[in-house]
Specification:
The chain is α+β, with helices and mostly antiparallel strands. The chain is built from 5 helices and 7 strands; from the N terminus they run ββαββββαααβα. β5 and β6 form a beta hairpin. The model has no long low-confidence stretch (mean pLDDT 95).
Length: 140
């Protein structure tokens, strides 16, 4: 129930295009086969797949690749802003930031994520229902 969650009154978040959620420590941006196909079509690839420059296999799953500096391969920086070049078809993992379970576990976890994300705690108010819909989404 909303009364049991520390964020029951909602949270504020608006993307500032800082790119911090798309860069940094090595990690994974998981993409399903359906998402890979959408990205490939968006990029004009007729084979419906991405090459090793854009995609890597991790066990039984797929992750977008990173540039040597830690940026997502699809992150473009210019004029002090960071832009996702596949924004319209970005994977669900990207679409649901910052409303991830790990960030919503406690107020302290949220605050720790806020250190790297200036869009958290500012901008648009997201009510509890909106947050839960985003947090529990399994496909787009």
């Amino acid at each position: 129930m909303a009364g049991e969650k520390w964020y029951a009154q909602g949270l504020r978040f608006s993307c500032t295009q800082c790119g911090n959620c798309c860069s940094g420590e090595p990690g994974y941006v998981w993409a399903t086969k359906e998402e890979i196909s959408r990205i490939a079509a968006f990029l004009g690839r007729t084979d419906g797949w991405l090459d090793k420059q854009h995609l890597r296999r991790v066990g039984l799953r797929y992750s977008l690749t990173e540039k040597p500096d830690g940026d997502c391969v699809f992150l473009k920086r210019e004029n002090g802003k960071s832009l996702c070049t596949i924004y319209d078809v970005r994977p669900l993992q990207c679409r649901t930031w910052p409303f991830w379970d790990e960030n919503l576990r406690t107020p302290e976890a949220w605050d720790a994520a806020h250190v790297k994300c200036p869009g958290m705690n500012s901008g648009k108010h997201h009510d509890y229902v909106q947050i839960e819909i985003t947090r529990t989404r399994r496909s787009w």
